[in-house]
Amino acid sequence: MEEKGLELGKRTTVDVAVGDTRIKLGQGGYAGCALASAVLGEGTYTCDAKGNVTFKWVRSLEYKDNAWKTGDPASLISTISLADASVGPVKPEETPETLWGKDIPEPQEAFEANKFDMRRVVLSHHQMRRGRAPANGEK
Q: Which domain of life is it from (predicted)?
């Protein structure tokens, strides 16, 4: 998994792409996901030594009828294997706009109203560095 750039550690966050789903495997077991169909999820994950990840999604939002609305966490992906050929890192240039389109607004108010820990949608840790000098050889 290291050769794929998907190595998990206690102080790392890994951004994973699986089909049209983007998943953040964060510190302390935090998980967040964004789908191309403008669905978001938040919860926790566990990962075994073989890279099998199991999710427990707690909250979900979906954009429909021109608004962010509460979704069904049970509809989100339940497991992935980091070793699977279909799993890879999120491209550094990928943004919510490139995933689901320009006409869908950021869901900050819906995050707050639905008690999400997430405050904005960030698909890749490279987006966090926007406007700052690259770190550790990033381009």
A: Eukaryota
CA distance readout (Å), 22 to 28, 32, 133: 19, 8, 25
CA dihedral 89, 59, 99, 127 (to 10 degrees): -60
Residue 54 CA to residue 34 CA, distance in Å, equals: 16
CA distance 117 to 121: 11
Residues contacting 138, CB < 8 A, separation 6+: 126, 129
Residue 44 burial (CB count, 10 A): 14
